[in-house]
Specification:
heterodimer, A: alpha+beta, FAD/NAD(P)-binding domain, seven-stranded mixed sheet, 21 strands, B: alpha+beta, Fumarate Reductase Iron-sulfur Protein, Chain B, domain 2, binds flavin-adenine dinucleotide, binds iron/sulfur cluster, binds FE2/S2 (inorganic) cluster
């Protein structure tokens, strides 16, 4: 029996309306194919919308600003764990993609009328990041208008639940739930692009938005696409600690307030002394995140579970925005924590926070995944950044690889000529699956399991990991999957904007991705970039220079160590961590 | 003793409920609580069936706006109060509880055409003056949260042919851009630019503190005046003629003083509604080329007295 669903056919289906998905929509739309974009949240959303909008590109305007330097900085920052063939593309195409955005109508900040302002970041040889006044939301609106101008159509508040494949194993679209009406939909597509961004919501404390539960990684894994480097998660040292609702929202970086910022534990000690006596508060963000995390985990955090930022020694200029350069941040701090805190007269409490998923769906230069008909772009894809990412290399990644994904997915779609009948069996199965949450009557609410998962990940698969903890985490996650997930129930039978229902589907994805992350972290017996093992605290170039690969073998996670693409720079001088 | 927040929340599922109702919850109060905290507490501990929306927590998605004690606000921005009534934004179809369907308004707002050049730029970066960028930046901070729409008296006055501050804000995001070839003057007039009463109510609720009456409305009006007395002026003159015919010139000044009064007008007949529009006469930005013509027609404005 055919279940009650709507089929909508398109040439290219894009899942996720962040900067990557929208850029792909522009490019595919330009090629004249029909494009549909699904977005779980209401538009605009995702990391792109809240990002600082720094985008690295080499324009060669200042001495030393070369593509080679951009390449080198990126590879060094990755601790040699990136795919250098992708980095080559990034540095080659970045400037052109910035010009595209300007053509679409983005207003880049300038130093002179015809030169973009470019800022510095940790690990840059020269200032290289352009920006849009410190925000990125306008970039999304400009891209949205451009994409719809080329005929792309967006379905917002529609959550993709799974990818479907035909007998040949090629992806033929996705099933989805319209969160507003609860309707079940099948988006039939000749090619599909996963652009659903990050997965910070796997962790208790994150800067990511509500929709960042890693659905794309889980969907890709389920349909047989390879994931790489999933053990690498990037954290920032300073996020809000309260109000609870704001927990994890970015406050800034230790170096962003001034020269004399002091980071203190509850005993008043400048704890960076222990971890990085030379660089102290000016250390890179992985090192300062790790230090703060350890202080908190070892009981030297504040009662609210944070560290203390003291800016009183900074000679702060009084200005309209206070010392916080970014006026939006200033206002949020002012309204949540008070004017004196925003002006850095009061001490600031902060916690490290999960920011960015360095791992992701394995792509080649054409953004093809290992499954035919499936493409990936943006934060969903990997491996551009290896073990650590330079600031400002990610929004530009969405542009460079979004463009490529759109271009090649449109080409592929044009080549698919045989009509695909609805795979009714598969759709029915998905339909039942998605509604099964409504059958439960008692047990666990999705939010309870979500919180359990987030706690496990934060405590055991977080900024500092060790073998014992990782094994425990895998066991606990397994327990949730086996014992608790079948006992899910929802408070309301309504299908209309029932976020518990959305969360039930998210929990399923979260369990899949967290298990993969924990297993990869267990496999990597060394410390490198964002991945730190207290039981293997050294970087091990003899054994660690591999790309960790995850594949779904009939429902079980299969891991392997794959050789790295080191076409241009050989990791002989891959120095110690730092 | 734990202090409690008492919150009464609008509940309605259009598929199953005949009428909306209000449900009261008690939430333990903490230091530094946002409205979002109260809703999350309810979701996690008291009632998972309550529908509300959020995404970014940074005032950037615009999706979390509701009415908090009758005033539009973002749940990621407004502080919780000991006693609160939470309701969905008015004038939009209700999806469920606090979630409304914003599509009809967002489509109108996004219908503003993007930057449209004569031809593709040959040289990039295109030269743009810093001041122009700064000027365009202000309206481009709007996140379409619709808080201003919910307080704007002019929006309420005209329902058929909607006056939407965020739509004009979108237009203002291109208006002073020399590269742009779209007739933004016509566009803003068609979007009822002259309906704004410059009452500043929108600015009080805007999460990005956009100075709408000055940076958007006045900027756009100035732009229309660049076309001589032009369309804007003709509009004013027509309005004046109407007033004179009805002999209510003085009344308009009084009417326009308070937003409360304006709200009362919203249900009044057409003739009085037109008077409400009269407030547009006063907030001239820079003097327009034909200002004297208008001044002699209308007489001194409120502000000048
Ligand atoms: C606070 C913050 C600041 C940052 N600042 C910078 C910076 O200055 N420079 C830089 O380079 N990088 C920065 N980053 C990182 C960068 O912003 C992101 O990596 C990038 O924007 C990701 O873009 P994306 O399009 O891949 O994903 P996103 O922008 O996250 O978009 C993904 C979209 O997919 C949707 N989605 C998710 N699941 C589903 C589903 N199942 N079905 C349908 N849709 C779904 C989501 O709703 C979301 O809108 C920052 C990140 C954060 C969090
Ligand atoms: S100033 Fe204008 S736009 Fe703002 S609320 Fe008043 S009438 Fe509406
Ligand atoms: S102007 Fe301000 S209040 Fe109005 S929609 Fe934009 S951001 Fe919201
Ligand atoms: S959650 Fe996005 S504006 Fe409030």
């Amino acid at each position: 029996m055919r279940r009650d669903y709507t089929t909508i056919a398109t040439d290219v289906l894009i899942i996720g309306a962040g900067a990557a998905g929208l850029r792909a929509a522009v490019e595919a739309g330009r090629k004249g194919v029909k494009v549909i974009i699904l977005n779980k949240a209401s538009f605009p959303s995702g990391s792109s919308n809240i990002s600082g909008g720094n985008m690295q590109a080499s324009f060669g305007w200042v001495a030393g600003d070369t593509k080679e330097n951009h390449f080198r900085d990126t590879v060094l920052s990755s601790k040699y764990l990136c795919d250098q063939s992708l980095v080559e593309i990034l540095v080659e195409e970045a400037a052109q993609r910035i010009f595209d955005l300007e053509e679409f109508g983005v207003l880049f900040s300038r130093t002179t009328p015809d030169r973009y302002a470019q800022t510095m970041g940790g690990g840059f040889t020269v200032p290289r990041s352009v920006m849009v006044g410190g925000r990125c939301d306008d970039v999304l609106r400009v891209l949205y208008k451009t994409a719809t101008g080329y005929g792309a159509r967006m379905y917002e508040q529609v959550m993709a639940t799974d990818l479907l494949r035909n007998q040949d194993g090629a992806v033929i679209g996705a099933t989805a739930i319209d969160i507003v009406t609860g309707n079940f939909m099948f988006f039939k597509a000749r090619s599909t692009i996963l652009a659903n961004g990050p997965c910070g919501r796997l962790f208790k404390i994150t800067a990511n938005t509500r929709s960042a539960t890693g659905d794309g990684f889980a969907m890709a894994y389920r349909c047989g696409a390879k994931l790489v480097n999933m053990e690498f998660m990037l954290f920032l040292p300073l996020g809000f600690i309260y109000p609870e609702f704001m927990k994890g929202v970015v406050l800034g970086e230790l170096s962003s307030f001034g020269e004399n910022t002091k980071a203190l534990n509850v005993l008043g000690e400048r704890f960076m002394q222990k971890y990085a006596p030379e660089t102290m508060e000016k250390s890179t963000r992985d090192i300062s995140s790790r230090a703060s995390y350890l202080e908190i985990m070892e009981g030297r955090g504040t009662p609210s579970g944070g560290i203390i930022i003291d800016n009183s020694m900074n000679n702060l200029k009084e200005s309209e925005n206070g010392p916080v350069r970014n006026v939006s941040y200033y206002r949020i701090i002012r309204d949540c924590l008070g004017g004196d805190t925003a002006n850095m007269k009061d001490l600031l409490e902060a916690t490290p926070t999960a920011l960015y998923c360095l791992g992701g769906i394995k792509i080649n230069k054409r953004c093809e995944t290992s499954v035919p008909g499936l493409y990936a772009a943006g934060e969903a894809e990997a491996n551009l950044h290896g073990a650590n990412r330079l600031a400002g290399n990610s929004v530009i990644e969405t542009q460079v690889f979004g463009t490529r994904a759109g271009y090649y997915a449109a080409d592929y779609a044009a080549g698919v000529t045989t009509p695909t009948p609805d795979p009714v069996e598969l759709i029915n199965h998905e339909y039942e699956q998605s509604r099964s949450a409504f059958d439960g009557r008692s047990g666990f609410k999705p939010i309870q399991l979500k919180k359990e998962i987030q706690d496990i990940m934060w405590n055991k698969v977080g900024i500092v990991r060790n073998g014992e903890g990782l094994i425990a985490a895998i066991r606990e996650l397994e327990g949730i999957r086996q014992d608790k997930m079948p006992a899910l129930y929802l408070s309301s039978a309504s299908k209309r904007y029932n976020y518990e229902w959305v969360e039930a589907m998210e929990v399923d994805n979260m369990i899949t991705v967290t298990e993969i992350m924990s297993r990869c972290a267990l496999m990597r017996q060394e410390s490198r970039g964002a991945h730190y093992r207290s039981d293997f605290s050294e970087t091990d170039n003899a054994n660690g220079l591999y790309e960790s690969m995850t594949l779904n073998q009939n429902g079980t996670v299969q891991l392997s160590k794959e050789p790295l693409n080191t076409s241009k720079m050989i990791p002989e001088d891959a120095g110690p961590d730092g | 003793m734990v202090k409690e927040i008492t919150v009464s929340i609008f509940r309605y599922d259009p598929e199953s409920d005949k009428h909306p109702s209000y449900q009261t919850y008690s939430v333990p109060s903490k230091e530094r609580m946002l409205v979002g905290d109260v809703l999350e507490y309810i979701h996690e501990n008291l009632d998972g069936s309550l529908a509300y929306r959020w995404e970014c927590r940074m005032r950037l998605c615009g999706g979390c706006t509701i009415l908090i004690n009758g005033k539009p606000g973002l749940i990621c921005r407004e502080q919780a109060e000991p006693s609160m009534t939470l309701e969905p934004l008015p004038f939009l179809p209700i999806v469920r509880d606090l979630v409304v369907d914003r599509k009809s308004l967002l489509d109108k707002i996004y219908s503003v055409p993007p930057l449209t050049r004569q031809k593709s730029p040959v040289r990039l970066p295109e030269p743009i003056a810093h001041e122009v960028i700064l000027g365009l930046r202000v309206p481009r901070q709007c996140v379409q949260c619709l808080a201003c729409v919910a307080v704007c008296p002019a929006t309420e006055v005209l329902t058929a042919d909607l006056f939407l501050p965020p739509k004009l804000i979108q237009i203002a995001g291109f208006a002073i851009d020399d590269r742009d070839t779209v007739d933004r003057v016509q566009e803003s007039e068609e979007s009822n630019l002259f309906d704004c009463a410059c009452c500043h109510a929108c600015e009080e609720v805007c999460p990005h503190e956009i100075n709408i009456s000055e940076k958007v409305i006045t900027a756009l009006r100035n732009k229309t005046y660049e076309h001589g007395i032009g369309r804007g002026g003709r509009y004013i003159k027509a309005f004046y003629d109407t007033l004179q015919a009805k002999g209510k010139v003085n009344a308009s000044g009084i009417l326009l003083r308070s937003q409360g009064y304006l709200r009362a007008i919203m249900k009044a007949p057409q003739g009085i509604r037109l008077i409400a529009r009269g407030k547009f006469v006063s907030p001239f930005g820079k003097p327009i080329p034909d200002i004297e013509d208008i001044r002699t027609i209308i007489g001194p404005t409120e502000q000048e007295k």
